[in-house]
Specification:
It comes from Thermohalobaculum xanthum. This is AAA family ATPase. With about 270 residues, the chain is an alpha/beta fold. It has nine helices and nine strands. It has a single domain, classed as P-loop containing nucleotide triphosphate hydrolases (Rossmann fold, 3-Layer(aba) Sandwich), CATH 3.40.50. It has a seven-stranded parallel β-sheet with strand order 3-2-4-1-5-8-9, sandwiched between helices. The relative contact order is 0.18.
């Protein structure tokens, strides 16, 4: 394979929004569609994405049938004493890992920590598609922009949104194609509510102001915790028979398909 893989980065500055869950489901969706996928986990402390993959690998060994797995490269923090030197080494390590995975993979899925780090910032610059999952509440909306509590109007972008803007500028300066920024609305209530309508209104207003697309995410479901322990996703529940499938799981699986379809990734036409 020649050229650079399409880099998909899962990023925001808050934990618990579902970055690793989305990264894992996206990997399996792409793999089941016939694509070779590389994986990077830049959360050097928690490594939730890679731990998810390790659980998957262990399940495959237990049932005697290897499951679909991505090509993984582990990146370590620089040990350089000087901050600038450390930052330069980490940026180079990320660029090298993406280049190496691009030799065999069409896509590279990158999970990032819920904090600003050198690696996280570099990943945002490298992102062809940036996916920002947020929980569907005004509290989590603060990740994207500031809202006037009296009027409900958006008063400006957040620090994270400004970081994404900076990443876009750096991409443009290097002659790369524009980033496609997609915000996933996770844990959307099944019931109509005042908060749901209000969040929808302000997020649409901000999407026009700072340039991101809105895509459907995942509902709040207990199944996601069980899936993590077994290394499975909603797209391969039948593997190993570890979890019984219910109608709720079927509906959740459709959410995954809708999410991947909304991303409009190059060469991804259908999901199995």
């Amino acid at each position: 394979m020649t050229g650079q893989a399409h880099v998909i980065v899962l990023g925001n500055e808050k934990g618990g929004a579902g970055k690793s869950t989305a990264a894992m489901h996206l990997f399996v969706a792409l793999a089941r569609a016939g694509h070779r996928v590389g994986a990077l986990d830049l959360d050097l402390r928690q490594q939730s994405f890679f731990r998810y993959l390790q659980n998957r690998e262990a399940l495959g060994q237990r049932v005697g049938k290897p499951l679909l797995m991505p090509e993984r490269i582990t990146i370590s923090a620089s040990r350089a004493a000087l901050r600038e030197q450390a930052a330069e080494e980490e940026r180079a390590a990320l660029a090298g890992a993406i280049a190496q995975l691009s030799e065999t993979c069409g896509f590279v899925v990158v999970d990032t920590p819920g904090a600003v780090t050198t690696l996280s910032e570099a990943a945002h610059v490298a992102a062809d598609t940036l996916i920002t999952p947020i929980n569907d509440s005004l509290v989590d909306f603060d990740l994207l922009g500031r809202v006037d509590p009296a009027t409900g109007k958006v008063t400006g972008p957040s620090i994270y949104a400004e970081m994404v803007w900076s990443a876009r500028q750096r991409r443009a300066a290097s002659g790369r194609l524009p980033m496609d920024w997609v915000v996933l609305r996770n844990r959307i209530s099944m019931l109509e509510s005042r908060n749901k309508r209000k969040v929808g209104k302000v997020i649409e207003e901000l999407s026009r102001r700072i340039g991101f697309r809105i895509a459907p995410g995942f509902s709040e479901r207990v199944i996601f915790r069980e899936l993590f322990l077994n290394g499975l996703t909603l797209l391969d529940l039948k593997q190993g028979g570890a979890i019984s499938i219910t109608m709720s799981h079927v509906a959740a699986r459709q959410e995954v398909r809708d999410m991947v379809k909304a991303l409009n990734l190059p060469g991804v036409d259908a999901l199995v």
